[in-house]
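Morning F.,

Quick status update on the modeling queue. The single chain you submitted on Monday has been processed. Sequence for confirmation:
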Amino acid sequence: MSGKILRIIAIILMGMASAMMFLGGIGTICIAFWPEKYPTLAMMARVKPIFQVAAILTILAGLWGGWTTFQLRRFTASNHRRAVLILVLSLATAIVKMYFSSRLRGSVAPTNIRFYLSLGVLIYFLILRLPGLWQRVENSSHGPDEKDNEGLAAAAFLAGALILTVQYWAGPTHTINGINYADVWHWPLTILAWALMTGGLSFGIRRSREPYSTTPSHVININ
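Structure tokens below.
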């Protein structure tokens, strides 16, 4: 498999993981700040400060991960390290939430989804750092115009699709007294999702129509 394909997969996975972090953070706001308002979450009141810190850190990790996904168009060592750090932060907050949720309410869903996704993406990024693969993957020495924009377009579209459908796949674990609380942020999330999907799709189409140049970016043509 070529280095470019490996980089594109990494960008897509990081985009999906970042979207899940963001959703996981805002989805924990109710249990972190107002668990007393919901009978099925009242037992979590004793650990509110812990969940508040975890929720804020998870949201920040998601936003930072989104920016890092954009930066991964240039797959450099520093961008790779930043992605690994964000994934470790996601795992740490997920473990804390899962521990207390399991002990107090007997369930770890849907945080376990974010945990396994972040773990899988982290393993993939660590594998890419192996000497045999890293020389093929990193592109810091290439020209400034050589960026994996195709991966970024795909990551934006898929992350948008994940956000757009959150009320369906997270609904079963967020429905209390017949109210689907995964859909509370309906319009803000819908606007964000469509912006990501439209931006990713339009950018991908535009890139596919650009003529392919075989001239290396570092060669200056003086005719």
